[in-house]
């Protein structure tokens, strides 16, 4: 089952991630608890995998002194940090759209 965040336009689904459009300058990347091995998505999930991967990404992007696509950590007032859908949890982070990010460099 894919996430359904009805407030945002769903752009793409990957094996373990989802991409939504927040506005003209920002995308929402959702890391799910789904597991992929050798291009096959398994039926089982790893609890909190998406949340942990998101926290690690935010942490390490904060350490590097290089422009990147991260617009900021999850904003609980705009997007729930964890959203329940069927049998998995997800975590999210906001990112600049590539063209907007590239123009800012």
From TrEMBL:
Enzyme class: ligase
Pathway(s) this gene product operates in, as recorded in its UniProt entry: Purine metabolism; IMP biosynthesis via de novo pathway; 5-amino-1-(5-phospho-D-ribosyl)imidazole-4-carboxamide from 5-amino-1-(5-phospho-D-ribosyl)imidazole-4-carboxylate: step 1/2
Any one GO cellular component localisation term in the record: cytoplasm
Record's keyword terms, sorted: ATP-binding, Ligase, Nucleotide-binding, Purine biosynthesis
Any one biological process term the GO annotation gives: 'de novo' IMP biosynthetic process
GO molecular function terms attached to this record: ATP binding; phosphoribosylaminoimidazolesuccinocarboxamide synthase activity
Listed EC numbers: 6.3.2.6
Domain SAICAR synthetase/ADE2 N-terminal: 11-73
Cross-referenced Pfam families: SAICAR_synt
Known catalytic reactions: 5-amino-1-(5-phospho-D-ribosyl)imidazole-4-carboxylate + L-aspartate + ATP = (2S)-2-[5-amino-1-(5-phospho-beta-D-ribosyl)imidazole-4-carboxamido]succinate + ADP + phosphate + 2 H(+)
Family matches, as InterPro entries: SAICAR_synt/ADE2_N (IPR028923)
Family of this protein: Belongs to the SAICAR synthetase family.
PANTHER family, A to Z: PHOSPHORIBOSYLAMINOIMIDAZOLE-SUCCINOCARBOXAMIDE SYNTHASE
Protein's recorded name: Phosphoribosylaminoimidazole-succinocarboxamide synthase
Protein source organism: Mycobacterium kansasii 662
């Amino acid at each position: 089952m894919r996430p359904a965040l009805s407030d945002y336009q769903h752009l793409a689904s990957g094996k373990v991630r989802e991409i939504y459009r927040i506005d003209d300058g920002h995308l929402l990347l959702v890391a799910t608890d789904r597991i992929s091995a050798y291009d096959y998505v398994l039926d089982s999930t790893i609890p909190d995998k998406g949340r942990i991967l998101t926290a690690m990404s935010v942490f390490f992007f904060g350490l590097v002194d290089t422009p990147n696509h991260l617009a900021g950590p999850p904003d609980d007032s705009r997007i729930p940090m964890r959203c329940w859908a069927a049998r998995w949890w997800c975590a999210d982070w906001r990112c600049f759209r590539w063209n907007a990010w590239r123009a800012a460099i």
